[in-house]
Amino acid sequence: MLKTMFLCPFLIFLVFFMPSMSLAQLTVANLWCENRSNPVGIEDLHPRLTWTLAGEGRNQSQSAYEIQVSKTKEFSGVKLFWESGKITSQESIHIPYQGPALRTLGKYHWRVRVWDENGTVSPWSQPAFWQNGILEDDAWKAQWIPVGYEEPSSRPAANMRHTFSLSKPVKSATAIITSQGLYHAFLNGSKIGNDYLTPGWTSYQKRLQYQVYDISEQLQEGENTLGATLGSGWFRGNLVWQSRNDFFGNELALLLQVVVEFEDGTIEIIGTDENWKSKESAILSSEIYHGETVDGRKQSSDWLKPNYDDSNWDGVEIRDFGYDHLVATDNEPVKKQEVIQPIKIITTPEGDKVLDFGQNLVGFVTVDISGNRGDSLILEHAEVLDREGNFYTTNLRAAKQRNKYILSGNRDHFEPQFTWQGFRYARIGGNATAYSMDDFKAVVLYSDMHQTGEFSTSDTLLNQLQHNIQWGQKGNFLDIPTDCPQRDERLGWTGDAQVFFRTAAYNMNVNNFFAKWMKDVAADQLDNGAVPHVIPNVLGESAAGSAGWADVATIIPWDMYLLYGDTKILEQQYESMKAWVDFMNAESKNNLWNTGFHFGDWLFYRPDDDTDGRSAITDKYLIAQCFFAHSTQLLINAAEVLGKPDDQQQYSQLLGDIKAAFVKEYMTPNGRLVSGSQTAYVLALHFDMLPASLRQQAADRLADNVRKYDYHLTTGFLGTPYLCHVLSRFGYKDLAFTLLMQQTYPSWLYPVTQGATTIWERWDGQKPDGTFQNPGMNSFNHYAYGAIGDWMYRELAGINASEKPGEVGYKKVILKPHWYFEYQSEKISKQNNDKLLSEVNASLKTYYGTIVSHWQKALQGQYTYTVNIPVNTSAEIHLPTGHSEKNIKENGTPLSEAKDIKIVETNKNTTVVSLGSGTYTFTIE
């Protein structure tokens, strides 16, 4: 009785006096090491750990954490390898391991618990692990082995094998593999890992990746056989134009090392050496652009197993290709993803049998087929049909995109190993005829990045546009960000990558993908600081230093810092950023950069522009000066974050001089630019090149230009990404929306109305009359113009990351949507009311959790807005109010009475509120 009387007042206090206090316990989930789940092959000596928190209720946050690391899966009753102790901190992402020195191939298990805002401790998380890669060069015991026979001119793929014996029970085993060329590796008949196009594409002489695999379950006591098949790939295959080969070398070679730990604690290392054997494979030829020819009569898996007679195979020789350039794989590997069935089989007017997969995709077609021994099945690949409905490949230029399969006489399964195609349609040729549509499947390949963003609206064409943007990203994020996946190019064009980066980071977690590629940007950067047009650089040192392309060196690292909250990318790339700015400064005279080659506003709209894109009307040196200033500003920002005050001061002075030179050279006293194009005004405004007092009148001129072209854009690669952002910033939200919703050429939705399933390289790749643009450069899967996705997420849905120190990486979320009723004054709202949006629903998975921003028109004059803010973050939300916040309620409660919400500011049109984690539903009159 006394206990009851004592507890009741305390309960009453909790219920009535602490209504905003969360009583729900936090839990820890989604553990990442170096931004990956249970990664294998980590080279960092202080790998960074990240976790996501979950909990019900509002205003939940972490006040402290504790990390434990163990060499075993057990944590209780064992000596721990490292304990952080209780650390008072709200940080939950990119926490560096600070324990004892790690060992090569060491496997470490870790778990974490946290204390919430009230000091309540969570349960321990489920354990996760990481395994190190090679931490010292002398850990390599395997030797490089090229093929041991004289290769024919067709350079078929090579098979290599070796059998060894284990006499003791195995505790664990790890394989470390790389190659000159592409490889598939096998153990006892089974593939090692499920990665494709390994070891990936890097600047091979400077950075050649190796992969690490746990093969404990594949080993057996007694006889074991290691095998590998090597193809030419990027290393020595046909790249770029004029049938050029051997960019990085001319010899295929394998480096494979297996480290076996036995139950008794002893270690044995098996590696490539002179005891291996080699032989030509059933892959008679293999080229990335041209496809593969596979002879099923030679295809067998017997050579991958013990007891196979390899007496007629050739030996191998040892080569000293070295280990200094070998690096761990930072990014997610390419894997098989979706499998797509053909939707129909077509007989074209010309009589071809063509499979239609309904989606422009990147990967290959597999087939299961029976037929006469020696008969062949040929598959050719295309993105589109011409206006008569015939198979169209002219835009592929020299790329054949052709796979040929020679039948064994039994039931055969065929799929290429070292090539891929970009296609929607596949033409069936050859003399094999015993097949049906069900025998074919399209396998989609792309780097195995997690999807993070979802975006949908009440408009079906916009939803298809979002679909096209995502599939353009999938098809071109194949280990590096390529420009296109089908013709004889498929290169890492820097300009395409930088304009699309922010859109890419909404759709997928591209943190590791770009961190890896940016290392190659730095590796291939010239000694004078110029950045090549493509990375890896296969165009030579003369192809470097173009404004808007080379600025990838500054733009992507800074945006990665903002969106992923990680200073490591700035530390990694800072010298590269600085070298690029110094190059521009050295090339300039009186702070004016008006020298060198520049692509300019590539592939801008002009009615007669069926050329190669070099006819852009915006002054290319005006563009160069804008990017000179922008990169300098980003370098200043990075210097501030990294604590480099001398650089910050030096480049701040330079920035002022650059902008002064711009005004003197390219602007009249009244603020008119010498180039009157949309792109000129967009770049000058977005990069703050004009005096503040003249910016609005410049924005007005931009708006007039858009109206002059009947509410259409005229921008190219460099102007398009910023166009709608600039219009929104300067009070023309309605005009930005009008541009987005246009359905006639040139516009984002025009290709959608023509049946596009990916983003086109040109605004009118296929013209309204069904004819095509210049086939010399007319890809139908080219993601650059998909950069509008950034505006759709940031403006229509309103999901933004704070750019303030301590708030980046979505530690603080800024939600500032554009609403239906904000589009009132321009063409689309006056003439096409049915095209106004009544709903936008978007979400974004961050390292802290999932952000949701969902607004919709409900009753007449009323809107609902539902948001979700992850645990351990806060948000600033901009709500439309008319003239008073009294028009807003949250979950039925007037905003001024909502205890979990703080009103920060109210003006004529907007109420700004701040709040903590949780789900909130606002109704707005």
What is the topology?
Blueprint: H1 2-17, E1 27-33, E2 40-42, E3 48-54, E4 62-70, E5 82-83, E6 87-88, E7 95-96, E8 107-116, E9 128-132, E10 145-146, E11 158-166, E12 170-180, E13 182-187, E14 190-191, E15 208-214, E16 222-231, H2 233-236, E17 253-262, E18 267-271, E19 277-280, E20 283-287, E21 291-295, E22 314-315, E23 326-328, E24 334-340, E25 344-347, E26 353-369, E27 376-382, E28 384-385, E29 391-392, E30 402-406, E31 412-414, E32 421-429, E33 440-447, E34 453-457, H3 460-476, E35 477-478, E36 480-481, H4 494-507, H5 511-524, H6 552-564, H7 568-587, H8 620-642, H9 645-666, H10 678-686, H11 695-708, H12 720-729, H13 733-741, H14 749-753, H15 788-796, E37 799-801, E38 812-815, H16 827-831, E39 839-845, E40 850-857, E41 863-869, E42 874-880, E43 888-890, E44 893-894, E45 901-906, E46 910-915, E47 918-924
Parallel strand pairs: 2-9, 15-23, 21-30, 38-42
Antiparallel strand pairs: 1-3, 3-7, 4-5, 4-6, 4-8, 8-9, 10-17, 11-16, 11-19, 12-15, 12-17, 13-14, 13-16, 17-18, 19-22, 20-21, 24-33, 25-26, 26-31, 26-32, 26-33, 27-30, 27-32, 28-29, 34-39, 35-36, 37-38, 39-40, 40-41, 41-47, 42-46, 43-44, 43-47, 45-46
Signal peptide: 1-24
Domain Bacterial alpha-L-rhamnosidase N-terminal: 168-337
Catalytic activity: Hydrolysis of terminal non-reducing alpha-L-rhamnose residues in alpha-L-rhamnosides
